[in-house]
Amino acid sequence: MTRAEDQDDEEDTIPRDAVQVEFVDVIDGDTFDVDYDLGPGKDPDRIRMIGIDTPETSYSYGNEPECYGEEATNRLESILLSADEIWVERDVDPVDPNDRLLRYVWYVSGTDDHQVIFLNEQMVEEGFAVARTYEPNTHHQDRLDEAEKRAIQEGRGMWTACDASVSLDPELEDDDIPDKAPIDRTKTPISDSDEELVCSFFNTRDEAQDFLNLYPEMAEDLDPDGNGKACEAYFDN
Predict the structure, then answer these.
(1) Model-level pTM?
(2) Which portions of the chain are predicted below pLDDT 70?
(3) H or E stretch at 53
(4) R_g over Cα of the chain
(5) What local confidence, expressed as pLDDT, does residue 39 receive?
(6) Are 55 and 29 in contact (CB under 8 A)?
(7) CA angle 130-106-170, nearest 5°?
(8) Which domains does the chain have, with CATH numbers?
(9) Fewer CB atoms < 10 Å away: N or C end of the chain?
């Protein structure tokens, strides 16, 4: 298995300084136990995945169970159990205040292609975790933040199951967690007119125009003056 990060192709590879471990047990969606010895017997160490946060499943550390915590835990366990190889990579701070090893996690899939997958990113991309910056461990944070944007846009996992707004818009998810109550989707105050009410659901004039082109029967609301331009008055305000 290639371990260089500087390959010409775009596929992930195991980082040069990563260490192979053996999966022992799952704790929750971002924490699990591993064995570094890869031999007989078990001497587990606890891994806390860097740059992500999953919903809580217990009352430990002053927390309480949260929406999608059990699903995230089950997803993490299923991935690690089926992986052919598991590798962990450290950043600046190796240990958190609870003596857990802070690591990025990479694994070789058990499928025929033996693909190398960045697990921290996968959990965020599938909507089982949110991206969370923990300074100074930020080596892969941009990548994790982008994965969260894609998860929100696609309404994956917790972004549909636990989000009261289901905005599908990363800019409206300011706190980077699913909303407990519906949020205001409008960019500007709206009046009682049908045009402004309908147009408030579009972020740009181009989005409104594309919608009008697909559904010309909506012209009465989107293009009341009949000039072929959607939401002209709304976006000129």
Answers:
(1) 0.70
(2) 1-9, 39-41, 59-63, 163-167, 174-177, 179-197, 237
(3) strand 52-53
(4) 23
(5) 66
(6) yes
(7) 20
(8) 19-172 (2.40.50.90), 194-236 (no CATH)
(9) C
